[in-house]
Amino acid sequence: MTTPGAHAHPRFAEALHELGLDDLHPRIRRFPDATRTAAEAAAAIGCDLSQICKSLIFAADGVPVLVLMDGASRVDVGLVRKELGAEKVTRAAADVVRETTGYAIGGVPPFGHRTRTRVLADRGLLAHDVVWAAAGTPHTVFPMAPKELVEHAGATLVDVRERAS
Question: Is the pTM of the predicted complex or chain greater than 0.90?
Answer without folding.
Answer: yes
